[in-house]
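Fold this sequence, please.
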Amino acid sequence: MKPVVLPDRASTQEWGRRLGSLLAAGDLLVLTGGLGAGKTTLTQGIAEGLGVRGPITSPTFVIARVHPSLVGGPELVHVDAYRLDGALELDDLDLDSDLDEAVTIIEWGAGLAEELSPDRLELVIDVDTTTEERRITLIANGARMHELIAQLEAKS
């Protein structure tokens, strides 16, 4: 799949809403990008698509937040691994116990979250800080994630 090009913050959230509407319990998303790339902005849109309770803010200092569903769907577990020192600290969060029942999004999770599930969607976000245009590269791992990308492309 070619990178998804989104011109601004609002379109990033709208694309996230479409993605969120396709997610199911057990889905794992790993978001990578520099400071200000739009990881939390994208997560806000995904949360709206999932229909979970907000507000969605970066969990940098609390490390993880759980957002229950308002519509009978899966809850959202939103993790920020920026302050973690490695995969062992991520493992200490005991995320694997909730993986089958929630949608889990891990910001800054590259190099840490891969052991949680062989089925995951990696989203690499690059931003042009002068225009706020974002380019999201999707990397599917596992049959479910390849199917998810096909569904997302059909919705675009």
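The CA atoms of residues 15 and 66 lie 22 Å apart. The chain has a mean pLDDT of 87.
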